[in-house]
């Protein structure tokens, strides 16, 4: 009786007389049987299928290091892998490139390529783009999960001031963390609305008062309400600045710059009112204060901090710069052409309103954008025909880029909802996995877990492994292997 390690199959010449190019390899992947010939496989000798050609002479140890099972009678190799992904991967032996079939998870397909030892460079560029997008999504999910874990976990080695900073930051920046944080977010939202309404109502002449010099000014009550709102905004900004983990990044953030622009005019105008009169004329001080008061409109942008819809709209516009650029280019060309034609056609009319081509730009803008104030209009027949054509071209030019912009908005909005749901799903699976491990662990381990839970570091130290279908490797330091049955579709 021969030992398994010394076993040699009778149909293989150990002297190497049988050429590898003429060999026939039968592979069964997840119940799907494929036949390969050596001349195709040896083109890529570093792949797993090419290694099957020479593994028969090495015995069982060599065979089972490459496959899950082997039938010597049928000379058939068995693999418990995804057959759909395998059908795509074997294209590299015939066409030199791989296209990922629609409906296959890109991350799972990448894992399959790594198993079959096929380099990612053979993946087509369109599929690489899809893979990179999926990686970015998983990284975003991992980042959100890690942020939640950081909020749940408390490092006992940190100082009391550091823990207090984290509590304040979570209290002001994350309304979903607790009920008081949601109350603060609602109050901040109401202060923004009240401040904006007061700014608008203060310009109504009937609600204004006249000072000793006969100048109209805001009602003292409205001024007091605005002062209270500015006090709230100032306190909120200072607390967020003190508790921020990265103050440099905090100061350069767009929304925080908006907060400063909403607060700063009040203090500058207050300084000019009390000290500026001594340094300059009173009329100049009033003009400067009036100009600074106009800057108060910046506080309306603070609503974006509490509105996911406004944030989504901002992102959609940022992703639509190309479409917006095309829109502006279409309008610029149309404005130049139709204003020049309008000036030329209307120049002969004695009562023409088109004095020059630059002045005609205004007419072309309000015509192509379908506004039509009527302050400038053509009087000749050709001029009216030119106006009709410019109107139709303007409608077409504006309508064309709208659909891509709306698609970007909807795509980003749906993506954010999916990522949020996926992050919550990962946390639930982590908690379930930790609970199962806690129930099956030893008594000492249970005591350690309960002790860590009391210290607050349970989530940050234990909830690192997820066994969901969208396994996130970024959240685990351990190496996990997935079979075909675990791959997500």
Automatic annotation (TrEMBL):
Domain Ion transport residues, every copy: 182-416
Spans through the membrane: 183-204, 248-270, 324-341, 385-406
Gene3D superfamilies, alphabetized: 1.10.287.70, Potassium Channel Kv1.1, Chain A (3.30.710.10), Voltage-gated potassium channels. Chain C (1.20.120.350)
Database matches in CDD domains: BTB_POZ_Kv5_KCNF1 (cd18381)
GO biological process: action potential; protein homooligomerization
Domain Potassium channel tetramerisation-type BTB: 25-126
GO cellular component, one term: voltage-gated potassium channel complex
Keyword Nucleotidyltransferase: no
Coiled-coil residues: 415-452
Membrane topology: Multi-pass membrane protein
Record's keyword terms, sorted: Cell membrane, Coiled coil, Ion channel, Ion transport, Membrane, Potassium, Potassium channel, Potassium transport, Transmembrane, Transmembrane helix, Transport, Voltage-gated channel
Chief place where the protein resides: membrane
A Pfam family the protein falls into: Ion_trans
Task performed by this protein: Regulatory alpha-subunit of the voltage-gated potassium (Kv) channel which, when coassembled with KCNB1 or KCNB2, can modulate their expression and their gating kinetics by acting on deactivation upon repolarization and inactivation during maintained depolarization. Accelerates inactivation but has relatively little effect on deactivation. Coexpression with KCNB1 or KCNB2 markedly slows inactivation.
Subunit-structure text: Heterotetramer with KCNB1 or KCNB2.
Family from the record: Belongs to the potassium channel family. F (TC 1.A.1.2) subfamily. Kv5.1/KCNF1 sub-subfamily.
Protein name: Voltage-gated potassium channel regulatory subunit KCNF1
Biological source species: Neodrepanis coruscans (wattled asity)
């Amino acid at each position: 009786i021969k030992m398994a390690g010394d076993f040699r199959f009778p149909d293989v010449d150990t002297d190497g007389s049988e050429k590898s190019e003429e060999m026939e390899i039968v592979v069964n992947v997840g119940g799907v049987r494929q036949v390969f010939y050596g001349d195709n496989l040896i083109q890529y000798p570093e792949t797993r299928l090419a290694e099957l050609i020479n593994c028969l002479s090495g015995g069982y140890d060599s065979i089972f290091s490459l496959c899950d099972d082997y039938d010597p009678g049928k000379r058939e190799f068995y693999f418990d892998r995804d057959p759909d992904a395998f059908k795509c991967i074997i294209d590299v032996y015939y066409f030199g490139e791989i296209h990922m079939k629609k409906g296959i998870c890109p991350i799972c397909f990448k894992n399959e390529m790594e198993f079959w030892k096929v380099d990612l460079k053979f993946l087509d560029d369109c599929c690489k783009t899809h893979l990179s997008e999926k990686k970015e999504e998983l990284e975003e999910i991992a980042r959100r999960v890690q942020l939640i874990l950081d909020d749940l976990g408390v490092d006992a080695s940190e100082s009391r001031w550091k823990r207090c900073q984290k509590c304040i930051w979570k209290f002001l920046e994350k309304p979903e963390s607790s009920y008081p944080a949601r109350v603060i977010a609602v109050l901040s939202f109401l202060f923004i609305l009240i401040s904006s309404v007061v700014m608008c109502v203060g310009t109504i002449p009937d609600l204004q008062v006249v000072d000793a010099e006969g100048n109209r000014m805001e009602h003292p009550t409205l001024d007091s309400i605005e002062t209270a709102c500015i006090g709230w905004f100032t306190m909120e900004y200072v607390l967020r600045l003190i508790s921020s983990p990265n103050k440099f990044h905090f100061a350069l953030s767009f929304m925080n710059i908006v907060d400063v622009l909403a607060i700063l005019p009040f203090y500058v105008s207050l300084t000019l009112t009390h000290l500026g009169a001594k340094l300059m004329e009173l009329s100049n001080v009033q003009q400067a204060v009036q100009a600074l008061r106009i800057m108060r409109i910046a506080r309306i942008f603070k609503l974006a901090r509490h509105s996911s819809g406004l944030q989504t709209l901002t992102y959609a516009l940022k992703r639509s710069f190309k479409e917006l650029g095309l829109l502006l280019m279409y309008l610029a060309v149309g404005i130049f052409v139709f204003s020049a034609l309008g000036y030329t056609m209307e120049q002969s009319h004695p009562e023409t309103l088109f004095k020059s081509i630059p002045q005609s730009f205004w007419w072309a803008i309000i015509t192509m954008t379908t506004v039509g104030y009527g302050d400038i209009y053509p009087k000749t027949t050709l001029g009216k025909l030119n106006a009709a054509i410019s109107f139709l071209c303007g409608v077409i030019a504006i309508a064309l880029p709208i659909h891509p912009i709306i698609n970007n908005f909807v795509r980003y909005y749906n993506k954010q909802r999916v990522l949020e749901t996926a992050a919550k799903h990962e946390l639930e699976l982590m908690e379930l996995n930790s609970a199962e491990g806690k129930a099956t662990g030893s008594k000492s381990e249970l005591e350690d877990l309960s002790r860590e839970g009391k210290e607050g570091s349970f989530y940050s130290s234990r909830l690192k492994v997820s066994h969901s279908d969208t396994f996130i490797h970024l959240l685990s330091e351990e190496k996990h292997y997935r079979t075909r049955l675990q791959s997500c579709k």
